[in-house]
Design brief:
alpha/beta, two-stranded antiparallel ribbon, globular, 18 helices, single chain, eleven-stranded parallel β-sheet
Length: 450
């Protein structure tokens, strides 16, 4: 058995040695090899901390004590430690056969192409690592291609991958995105992907649209800060029409504009899976909001729409709320237009809509004219509930238990808000219920945990 284990260790480390050769070629002959005649023999029969220390000795890097201390734990955070490519190679060698680490953070370590290649080769052998963050690491073309081949071959067990800022090459003024997008078309393992801050521009958006049209696994995608603009967003909208997996999409800070909003609205008419869309800070005005509403009026899946910091006024805000009113199938729970100044007419409209959609929460700015007036005083909603329970000789636990249909002591915020709006025993209005929800779900988990 020991001979067999030794043989497996030797075979698995062969891939890391191959990564060394590939990285050396990618960095055009830089002095990055192990500088021993046969590096595989140096690791035979050793594992864990001993393996890592030996790898550090051969790489001539200082061992990271935090890595050693957490090598037997599922989560290791090594962000911002200046590891460099050699430091990451030592870590990769130690993780080839590791069976405990499931989440690894390596953001901002300047691992370069050499380190990315070695990480990719390690992931082909490792069967435990599921979440990886290699954002802001200057991967260059060779590093991006190594990650892309890994995704295309579906050879890793990763389901969460963060590549924020890691694909942008500032000096060349371009992004190494093509290979990543193409590889995702055939990937069926990664469910959560962060590609923010990579400056993909319109061309990147077009490629992403093609990827979304064929990918059947990705559920969470962050594309914020990528300059996708109108053409890129139109292509994304086309991809979303036929996508059957994506649930959360972040397109904030992309210059989407009104035409982009139109494309997203058209996609929402037919998309039946997306539940969370963030299009904050995208230069969408009232006209764009109305175009988006064409989709909201028929969509029966979207629950959260974030549109803060767009140049909207009362007109656009009213259109958004009215779209929910027109749609009997609407599942909308939150609309964030927190920068918009509204008036009493909007408040009355919102109250009216909430009668048929009691789970709806609209986050808006100030109410016009209320700054000069003395604000209306509302009794503390928790005190109102406590007084009611005391009068009826009930316990607080009984109150929550009556709303908790599943009996797991965790109530979805939308279900809690709906129940509170529909009940008539406790005198609370929409504003008080909103205040109560914010207190009970103070860290915005979407669940009231009592």
């Amino acid at each position: 058995d020991q001979d067999e284990e030794t043989s497996n260790t030797s075979e698995s480390l062969e891939s890391v040695s191959l990564a060394d050769a590939s990285a050396e070629k990618a960095t055009q002959g830089s002095d990055t090899d192990l500088e021993v005649e046969d590096p595989e023999k140096a690791f035979v029969g050793i594992t864990g901390t001993e393996l890592y220390l030996e790898a550090c000795r051969l790489m001539e890097v200082v061992p990271v004590s935090h890595f050693i201390q957490n090598l037997a734990k599922p989560y290791i955070n090594l962000n911002h430690r200046g590891l460099g490519p050699k430091g990451v190679k030592a870590i990769a060698i130690a993780l080839v056969s590791n069976a405990t680490v499931t989440h690894l953070e390596l953001e901002d370590n300047c691992i370069l192409a050499e380190g990315a290649i070695c990480i990719a080769e390690m992931l082909r052998e490792n069967s435990c690592l599921q979440e990886l963050n290699i954002s802001n690491n200057h991967l260059d073309t060779a590093g991006a291609e190594a990650i892309a081949r890994l995704l295309l071959d579906n050879m890793s067990y990763l389901h969460t991958l963060q590549l924020s800022g890691g694909l942008w090459l500032q000096l060349a003024g371009r992004s190494h995105c093509l290979c990543i997008f193409v590889s995702l078309q055939g990937n069926y393992r990664v469910k959560e992907l962060d590609l923010s801050h990579n400056e993909f521009y319109e061309k990147g958006g077009q490629l992403l649209g093609q990827m979304l049209a064929s990918n059947t696994t990705l559920e969470i995608l962050d594309l914020s800060w990528n300059h996708l603009r109108r053409q890129g967003t139109v292509a994304l909208g086309t991809g979303l029409r036929s996508n059957s997996a994506l649930k959360i999409l972040n397109l904030s800070w992309n210059g989407v504009g009104n035409e982009g909003a139109l494309a997203l609205g058209e996609a929402l008419k037919v998309n039946t899976v997306l539940v969370h869309l963030d299009i904050s800070n995208n230069q969408i005005n009232n006209e764009g909001a109305k175009k988006l509403c064409r989709g909201l009026e028929v969509n029966g899946k979207l629950k959260i729409l974030k549109m803060a910091n767009n140049p909207l006024t009362m007109e656009g805000a009213s259109a958004l709320v009215t779209s929910v009113r027109k749609n009997p199938k609407s599942m909308m729970e939150e609309i964030n237009i927190s920068n918009v100044l509204v008036n009493e007419t909007f408040i009355k409209l919102l109250d009216l809509v909430c009668q048929t959609h009691p789970e709806l929460d609209v986050i808006y700015g100030e109410v016009e004219g209320c700054i000069a007036k003395i604000p209306k005083q509302h009794p503390n909603p928790m005190k109102v509930i406590q007084n009611y329970l005391k009068e009826h000789n009930l316990r607080l636990w009984d109150f929550f238990r009556n709303i908790d249909k599943d009996g797991n002591m965790k109530i979805p915020v939308a279900a809690f808000q709906r129940a509170m709006m529909q009940q008539s025993s406790i005198p609370l209005d929409r504003v008080q219920i909103g205040e109560l929800v914010r207190k009970l779900d103070w860290n915005r988990t979407g669940v009231v945990d009592y």
